[in-house]
Design goal:
Low-confidence stretches: none
Strand order of the largest sheet: 8-16-17-18-19-20-21-22
Structural class: alpha/beta
Number of strands: 25
Strand content: 15-25%
Largest sheet: 8 strands, parallel
Length: 528
């Protein structure tokens, strides 16, 4: 044996009561489970780890995040702690000074949220001019669907301050929403392949520290669609050089049917790749975010009666887009936050299934936030999965009633989804929110944010157990990537991907810490 862990609690996740005290690993896979007799399998070269009573679970599998974007964000302006416009201004000025950024260079940041400000107004170009009039400032809101630029950037690249509508987006006074973000991104200097590889590695090492061994990641359009070949090459080279410390299932964001067809002509096949990097479903960005009021709703926002959100595709276009992928044996994972976008997505999936029946494809809804019970029933009837981010409750629980009124009573309904038998996997959408699975599990179990508010919990009837939350972060996420026969459980023949926790997660989730992360039998993180 290569490695034996003993004297702990090994949760297989096959069922809640199946717990062992020891596990043996050989050739990157689990070889045996048992009690003390597992130690009899050791050889002179076997590494032995005494767990000292610690708990072991399958490695967490984040079913929707942005690994490349997360890695890049670690070297950008962090605005997540800003509690005012002035905080954004001061933090950006300090970043420029600390890094000695030269005039007419880009300063990119992320994480501001006007709902956390003392005056709850979106930051504008006029505000950012106080941070710099000599750099190109591009600061994304936490959701990633809205960003603000300063006047120097606007003037240099020919953007007006007046309200300007484009297909699927809008910008005004430096505030760019949805597809309009691409207009700014296209002006930025593209990263090199070395940059891409550095950020992928940084993101992977970071998520390892959180107990994550697999991610389902949307990376292709973090910067520009022209970088798709370089991004694929970067992942493959890191994999071939054994430098990729997390397994990646690429949710392939290809913005229209023409780019999709180009990739199909180049050999795009779902599930094509290796143990550490393979291509997954077509990712479709359908609408925006609840916080930015760009999620597409059937009725106007309760706190902004003139707005219903933004959608990226007309129904006929979305139907054709999904059908092309479906006919090529590729599932669609469609970003839907608003209930009207969910109607549109389900219509497109239903249309594709009716025209070309296929029982093997696992279509899914990414986020699946603002919903009615009828929509969830239709998802079950269509056999459509939900990719859920429980960490979103840390913020959304405080705004959802203001945004959508009574519809909040049937939204974020994870217990209802489970009761209906929907396949539901958990993730984070990092760097939109924290990648920490323990924080997500806390939100799912308590229906509260990280500060334990609302005190009574948001829709307490929708709480789920700690075990079920872990199940959705492991077993269900493995199903979402067609890996249920090799990931998500700790059983003989499965990949030796696991997380060792320090503390009892069943007693106090947020006081539990990741002690060690093992990927393919190799220790990728150990708490100091």
């Amino acid at each position: 044996m290569d490695l034996i862990l003993h004297n702990g609690r090994i949760f297989t996740m096959r069922n809640e009561s199946e717990i062992y005290s020891a596990v043996a690993i050989k050739d990157a896979k689990i070889a045996a489970l048992g009690q003390n007799e597992i130690l009899d399998l050791k050889t002179n070269t076997t590494q032995i780890i005494d767990l000292k009573g610690k708990d072991v679970f399958p490695g967490f599998n984040d079913s929707h995040m942005h690994l490349l974007g997360l890695g890049a964000s670690l070297s950008q302006v962090d605005l997540s702690k800003a509690r005012s416009k002035q905080d954004v201004i001061n933090t950006t000025k300090q970043f420029i000074k600390k890094h000695n950024i030269k005039k007419n260079h880009w300063v990119v940041g992320r994480g501001w949220n006007q709902d956390n400000f003392d005056v709850k107004e979106i930051i504008t170009a006029d505000d950012l001019d106080q941070a710099s009039s000599e750099h190109y400032l591009f600061l994304r809101r936490a959701c990633g669907h809205v960003a603000t630029c300063n006047t120097h950037l606007l003037n240099t690249f020919g953007f007006k301050k007046e309200k300007t509508l484009i297909d699927g987006g809008v910008y005004e006074n430096g505030v760019f929403k949805e597809n309009a973000l691409e207009l700014v991104a296209d002006k930025m200097e593209l990263p090199t392949k070395n940059d891409l590889m550095m950020w992928i590695k940084a993101g992977a090492e970071y998520v390892n520290s959180l107990g994550i061994t697999s991610v389902q990641s949307d990376d292709f359009c973090v910067f520009s669609e022209t970088l798709i070949p370089d991004i694929i090459t970067s992942f493959n080279e890191l994999d071939q050089n054994n430098e990729l410390s997390v397994r990646v299932y690429e949710q392939s964001l290809l913005r229209n049917k023409y780019i999709l067809q180009e990739e199909l002509d180049s050999g795009y096949q779902q599930n094509k790749g290796s143990d550490f990097f393979k291509l997954g479903p077509l990712k479709i960005l359908g609408d925006g975010s609840l916080g930015g009021r760009t999620a597409w709703l059937n009725k106007p926002y309760s706190d902004s009666p003139d707005e219903v959100g933004i959608h990226m595709y007309e129904q006929d276009d979305l139907n054709e887009y999904v059908a092309i992928a479906h006919d090529n044996n590729i599932a669609s994972a469609i970003h839907c936050i608003g209930d009207r976008m969910l109607d549109s997505a389900l219509e497109a999936i239903s249309n594709a299934k009716e025209k070309t029946p296929n029982t093997t494809l696992r279509h899914g809804i990414v986020h699946c936030q603002i919903t009615s019970n009828e929509q969830l029933i239709r998802m079950k009837e269509l056999d459509v999965m939900a990719y859920v981010q429980p960490i979103f409750l840390d913020y959304d629980a405080h705004i959802v009633y203001n945004r959508v009124g009574k519809l909040a009573e049937t939204s974020y309904s994870w217990k209802t989804m489970m009761d209906l038998g929907l396949r539901m996997s958990f993730g984070s959408d990092a760097p939109v929110d924290s990648a920490d699975p323990l924080k997500g599990i806390h939100c799912a179990v308590t229906r509260q944010g990280l500060d334990y508010t609302p005190v009574d919990g948001y829709l307490k009837n929708q709480t789920i157990s700690v075990y079920d939350a872990i199940y959705n972060y492991t077993v269900e996420s493995a199903y979402a990537s067609y890996d249920e026969d090799r990931k998500g459980m700790l059983l003989p023949g499965f990949l030796a991907d696991m997380v060792i926790l320090d503390g009892n997660i069943f007693d106090d989730i947020l006081k539990t810490e990741v002690f060690m992360t093992i990927v393919g039998g190799n220790i990728r993180f150990k708490k100091v």
